[in-house]
């Protein structure tokens, strides 16, 4: 090996060691690795930042925005409530998530299937009071397994089909991948459901102070209108969606306060006092199609992207103390709505507008984001660390789901490349105001994108220095000494090992010609070896960087680099043990 090849391999080995060590955050490790690679000359100056324009970065960033838009719509919560109302077992929830994402990934791009299911995973995590990390990594692995089942499920299958067509004149068809792919998917899903506990429960490394805020006794007020889906239903039916995190404390019918018995039937114009966590309040009001009492849109333009809700605590000396919202005429004088009030150690029984503010009360105000800082200053209130408050926010109904389905459909039918389709979907989410502009960049998750962008030129150094060609030659020499099943396993394992350093499509481009000549030299038909390359390139379960699905869940799941092999290594071994005999059975070598 030349000096440059040795340096390229050394930089990558040191980088992987730093990732596994976990002492420094992954984006810092990636950035330092890029600088070292440039310093020793294995990455040219003019290629150092090509990763920032790579389509993988665009796909991951766009998918995060699309997923955030779908989550904000509240549609996923509705789906969970209707399809799995009584499912509380973590293993049962995981089975639903993994099976669904695996089946979806067979027919749409696997990252799209994963993006649509991530909000449901968060909903299940809240229901079971576990970390989302329990669900997200198994779901990502399930999406990779699902992609193996059809030609369009994942990029390696598409690329290997094209290469077979160029080499033999007959490309693989849509369902040529199904017998082996479905076998691996079934075995893999069973393993993930049974051994999900190998994944450590994590919290997001990028978690901010807002996640430390835990105020669960907000009181809000909502009205049953003629268009409410809660009309004619019972109180028990209405609060079911909150899963114990919110309750109706009183029903006001005309001038009477009625006890909120579970079997009390709701009528038009009933006013409900609801107490609970802000997310649970929002679920009840959104799914019941209730109208927040006295709800009026701040500012005449009504542009939802400029309307915000903020939590603030009333401190000593505030002019609000001793007055109610009605006395202050909050909307008429200040152009803000009072959405909820929380008081420590006491249950509030008054209607929202009649609550007399006290020192220490926490209030949720809705108004133009440009005006809220001045209003809080005038009110003498101290804002809490910002966190998403969806209560009272404007939703765009089915639009986010339609946008995502269109993105997945255009990629499935080959109308648009994946980066263009998902970038367009992300822009559509902003244009249709399904996600406020202020939340777009927080949804993107910068550390993940920096890690990806920095690693792309570092990983490519194996190819540009010729180190990958040297490895391929060693592989061919070694393979001639193995039996047929050993030679097939060698190609599969090598493709798995190479994928983290190239992207999965590049792995196929590098490995497929090697596999074909390797098979021909041994006197075998090439189909099983080409399939092995596609499987290996589509099954990176050991790192967050080999496939964008693994990268997509790293930030939301709070995973460390070393977490992936805990579940991924035994799964990889199972895939190898099952794939080799399956390939030999469905694609005979002679």
UniProtKB/TrEMBL annotation:
Compartments in which it is found: Membrane
Entry keywords, A to Z: Membrane, Repeat, Transmembrane, Transmembrane helix, Transport
Tree of life domain: Bacteria
Membrane topology category: Multi-pass membrane protein
Stated name of the protein: SLC13 family permease
Residues of the RCK C-terminal domain: 207-290, 297-382
PANTHER family: BASIC AMINO ACID ANTIPORTER YFCC-RELATED
Membrane-traversing stretches: 5-22, 28-49, 56-75, 95-122, 134-154, 174-199, 401-432, 444-462, 482-499, 505-524, 529-547, 567-587
Lineage: Bacteria, Pseudomonadati, Pseudomonadota, Alphaproteobacteria, Hyphomicrobiales
């Amino acid at each position: 090996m030349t000096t440059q090849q040795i340096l390229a391999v050394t930089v990558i080995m040191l980088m992987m060691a730093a990732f596994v060590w976990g002492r420094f955050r992954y984006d810092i490790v990636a950035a330092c690795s890029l600088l070292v690679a440039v310093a020793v000359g294995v990455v040219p100056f003019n290629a150092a930042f090509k990763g920032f324009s790579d389509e993988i970065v665009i796909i991951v960033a766009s998918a995060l925005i699309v997923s955030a838009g779908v989550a904000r719509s509240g549609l996923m919560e509705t789906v969970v409530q209707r399809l799995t109302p009584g499912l509380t077992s973590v293993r049962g929830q995981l089975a639903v998530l993994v099976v669904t994402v695996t089946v979806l990934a067979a027919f749409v791009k696997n990252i799209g299937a994963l993006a649509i299911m991530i909000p449901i995973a968060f909903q299940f995590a809240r229901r079971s009071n576990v970390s989302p990390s329990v669900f997200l990594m198994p779901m990502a692995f399930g999406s990779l397994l699902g992609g193996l089942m059809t030609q369009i499920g994942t990029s390696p299958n598409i690329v290997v089909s094209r290469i077979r067509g160029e080499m033999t004149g007959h490309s693989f068809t849509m369902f040529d991948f199904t017998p082996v792919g479905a076998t691996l998917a079934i075995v893999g899903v069973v393993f993930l459901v049974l051994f999900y506990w190998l994944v450590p429960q994590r919290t997001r490394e990028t978690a901010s102070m807002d996640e430390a805020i835990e105020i669960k006794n907000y009181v809000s007020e909502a009205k049953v209108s003629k268009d409410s889906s809660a009309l004619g239903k019972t109180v028990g039916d209405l609060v079911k969606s909150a899963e114990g995190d919110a309750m109706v404390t009183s029903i006001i019918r005309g001038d009477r306060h009625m006890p909120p018995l579970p079997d009390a039937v709701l009528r038009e114009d009933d006013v409900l006092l609801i107490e609970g966590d802000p997310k649970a309040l929002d679920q009840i009001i959104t799914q019941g199609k209730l109208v927040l009492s006295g709800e009026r849109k701040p500012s005449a333009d009504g542009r939802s992207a400029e309307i915000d809700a903020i939590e603030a605590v009333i401190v000593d000396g505030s002019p609000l103390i001793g007055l109610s919202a009605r006395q202050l005429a909050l909307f008429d004088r200040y152009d803000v709505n009072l959405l909820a009030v929380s008081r420590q150690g006491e249950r509030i029984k008054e209607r929202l507008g009649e609550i007399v503010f006290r020192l220490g009360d926490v209030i949720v105000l809705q108004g133009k984001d440009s005006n809220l800082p001045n209003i809080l200053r005038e009110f003498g209130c101290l804002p809490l660390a910002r966190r998403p408050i969806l209560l009272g926010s404007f939703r765009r109904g089915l639009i986010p789901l339609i946008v995502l389905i269109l993105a997945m459909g255009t990629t499935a039918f080959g109308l648009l490349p994946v980066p263009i389709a998902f970038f367009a979907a992300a822009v559509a989410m902003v244009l249709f105001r399904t996600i406020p502009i202020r939340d777009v960049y927080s949804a993107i998750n910068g550390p993940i994108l920096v890690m990806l962008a920095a690693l792309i030129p570092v990983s490519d150094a194996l190819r540009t220095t010729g180190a990958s060609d040297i490895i391929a030659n060693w592989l061919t020499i070694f393979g001639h000494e193995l039996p047929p099943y050993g030679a097939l396993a060698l190609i599969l394992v090598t493709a798995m090992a190479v994928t983290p350093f190239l992207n999965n499509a590049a792995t196929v481009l590098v490995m497929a010609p090697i596999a074909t000549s390797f098979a021909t030299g041994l006197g075998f038909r090439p189909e099983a070896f080409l399939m092995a390359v596609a499987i290996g390139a589509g099954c990176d379960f050991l790192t967050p960087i080999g496939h964008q699905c693994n990268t997509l869940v790293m930030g939301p799941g709070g995973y460390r680099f070393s977490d992936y092999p805990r579940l991924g290594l035994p799964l990889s071994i199972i895939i190898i043990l099952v794939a080799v005999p399956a390939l030999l059975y469905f694609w005979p070598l002679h």
